[in-house]
């Protein structure tokens, strides 16, 4: 879970450093996170050193245009927003300030559905003096969305899930920040705890080169529960010039043909789902992977043969193969069944490519 999130963030950082016309880098002022690609996801804007979510209230198509234009280096055609989102937050976490770890402050912890702008952040002293201790009970802490490593929205990992903390009744403060910073190995002398800022309203006229030329209001007064989920993509009506007729939804671009691994619906072009494939251009169906093959990725032009030791004997969008059970083996790839071990041999493990000869003093007169 943790590794996955970090990887996602690195991917988005990697992709979002697009330079726009006036030299404002998209990845430095805004980004889309938690989406399948850098052109889809929840919109965050960097303001006052913290990455904050943008609220859906008062969001307008002009703002979508400016955002997507930045992310797409002015090559976008059209785009659409938006979607709701809730967090499950922890609250009623109170510290005296001297605790070694946050779990010592969690006696009264409770959970609630919270608004994303209720969440808390900390800023620790700049120097890291020791490496992170984390907690005795396996409760982890991390700071996310901060401009520097020593600050950001607080997330606490409990039972395998990273959760935000809600600032219910203004209970969050410097004492709690002390504990978090201490856990992370930072100096605590200037630790401050605060409510994570939220971009409340972004208003663009549509002509801005960069989102930071739009009006951005900060605060915690979102009048709506919704934040922005943005799709920077084409709409097919804009993809009808001679050279580019199809809107490829997964790339977000107008294309002259609907590539292999995809299928056409109207003039939109979608990725084939996992377990299916399409080898040719401009087709309106994908095919199930044939017997003995599978495909665990979307948008593919062929399927992969089951490895040796595995088989698949069904058609129906298989995304993996079955392993050969004990007593059987498969020495070839792309097979629909396993072979029984011959008499005089055995196999006590699954997913094997050979059987083992019976040891001296033992025998096996039946196969399998
Ligand atoms: C935008 O431009 C940058 C720098 O030229 C490039 O690396 C990036 O891939 C471009 N983005 C898109 C969506 O084409
Ligand atoms: C917040 O304050 C209200 C009103 O004073 C109280 O009823 C509620 O229990 C408090 N919640 C917490 C988590 O302390
Ligand atoms: C908050 O925690 C205290 C104990 O620390 C507990 O007495 C109280 O009931 C809790 N409040 C809520 C709303 O869960
Ligand atoms: C973690 O899960 C265990 C077992 O389900 C539960 O007893 C415990 O209260 C959970 N911890 C927290 C902090 O929710
Ligand atoms: C583009 O398509 C129009 C009809 O839609 C046609 O008249 C024109 O000749 C085409 N141009 C090229 C370069 O193919
Ligand atoms: C797909 O399967 C390959 C092995 O064929 C594996 O390396 C890869 O991690 C899998 N990808 C996903 C997304 O499951």
TrEMBL record:
<feature type="disulfide bond">
    <location>
        <begin position="204"/>
        <end position="214"/>
    </location>
</feature>
<feature type="disulfide bond">
    <location>
        <begin position="95"/>
        <end position="105"/>
    </location>
</feature>
<keyword id="KW-0732">Signal</keyword>
<dbReference type="Pfam" id="PF00530">
    <property type="entry name" value="SRCR"/>
</dbReference>
<dbReference type="GO" id="GO:0005615">
    <property type="term" value="C:extracellular space"/>
</dbReference>
<feature type="signal peptide">
    <location>
        <begin position="1"/>
        <end position="26"/>
    </location>
</feature>
<dbReference type="GO" id="GO:0004720">
    <property type="term" value="F:protein-lysine 6-oxidase activity"/>
</dbReference>
<dbReference type="GO" id="GO:0030199">
    <property type="term" value="P:collagen fibril organization"/>
</dbReference>
<dbReference type="InterPro" id="IPR011641">
    <property type="entry name" value="Tyr-kin_ephrin_A/B_rcpt-like"/>
</dbReference>
<dbReference type="GO" id="GO:0016020">
    <property type="term" value="C:membrane"/>
</dbReference>
<dbReference type="Pfam" id="PF07699">
    <property type="entry name" value="Ephrin_rec_like"/>
</dbReference>
<dbReference type="InterPro" id="IPR009030">
    <property type="entry name" value="Growth_fac_rcpt_cys_sf"/>
</dbReference>
<protein>
    <recommendedName>
        <fullName>SRCR domain-containing protein</fullName>
    </recommendedName>
</protein>
<feature type="domain" description="SRCR">
    <location>
        <begin position="141"/>
        <end position="233"/>
    </location>
</feature>
<dbReference type="InterPro" id="IPR050912">
    <property type="entry name" value="LOX-like_protein"/>
</dbReference>
<feature type="domain" description="SRCR">
    <location>
        <begin position="30"/>
        <end position="125"/>
    </location>
</feature>
<dbReference type="InterPro" id="IPR036772">
    <property type="entry name" value="SRCR-like_dom_sf"/>
</dbReference>
<keyword id="KW-1015">Disulfide bond</keyword>
<dbReference type="InterPro" id="IPR001190">
    <property type="entry name" value="SRCR"/>
</dbReference>
């Amino acid at each position: 879970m943790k590794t996955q999130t970090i990887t996602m963030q690195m991917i988005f950082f990697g992709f979002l450093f697009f330079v726009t016309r006036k030299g404002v880098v998209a990845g430095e002022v805004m980004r889309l996170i938690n989406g399948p690609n850098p052109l889809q996801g929840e919109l965050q804007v960097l303001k006052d050193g913290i990455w904050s979510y943008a609220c859906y209230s008062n969001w307008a198509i002009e703002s979508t245009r400016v955002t997507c234009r930045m992310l797409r280096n002015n090559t976008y055609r059209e785009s659409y927003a938006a979607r709701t989102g809730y967090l499950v937050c922890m609250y009623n976490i109170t510290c005296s300030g001297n605790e070694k770890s946050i779990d010592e402050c969690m006696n009264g912890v409770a959970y609630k559905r919270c608004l994303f702008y209720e969440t808390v952040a900390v800023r620790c002293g700049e120097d890291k003096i020791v490496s992170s201790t984390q907690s005795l009970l396996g409760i982890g802490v991390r700071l996310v969305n901060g401009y520097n490593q020593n600050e950001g929205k607080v997330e606490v990992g409990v039972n395998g899930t990273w959760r935000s903390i809600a600032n219910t009744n203004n209970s969050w403060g410097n004492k709690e920040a002390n504990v978090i910073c201490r856990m992370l190995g930072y100096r605590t002398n200037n630790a401050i705890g605060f409510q994570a800022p939220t971009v409340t309203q972004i208003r663009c006229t549509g002509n801005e080169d960069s989102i930071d030329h739009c009006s951005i209001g900060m605060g915690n007064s979102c009048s709506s529960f919704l934040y922005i989920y943005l799709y920077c993509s084409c709409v097919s009506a804009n993809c009808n010039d001679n050279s580019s007729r199809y809107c490829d939804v997964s790339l977000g671009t107008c294309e002259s043909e609907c590539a292999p691994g995809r299928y056409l619906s109207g003039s939109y072009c979608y990725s084939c789902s996992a377990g299916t494939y399409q080898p040719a251009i401009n087709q309106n169906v994908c095919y199930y992977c044939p017997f003995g093959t599978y495909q665990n990725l979307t948008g593919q032009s062929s399927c992969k043969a089951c490895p040796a030791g595995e088989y698949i004997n069904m058609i129906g969008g298989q995304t993996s193969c079955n392993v050969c059970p004990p007593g059987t083996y498969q020495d070839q790839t792309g097979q629909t069944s396993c072979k029984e071990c011959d008499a005089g041999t055995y196999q006590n493990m699954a997913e094997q490519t050979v059987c083992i000869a019976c040891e001296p003093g033992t025998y096996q007169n039946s196969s399998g």
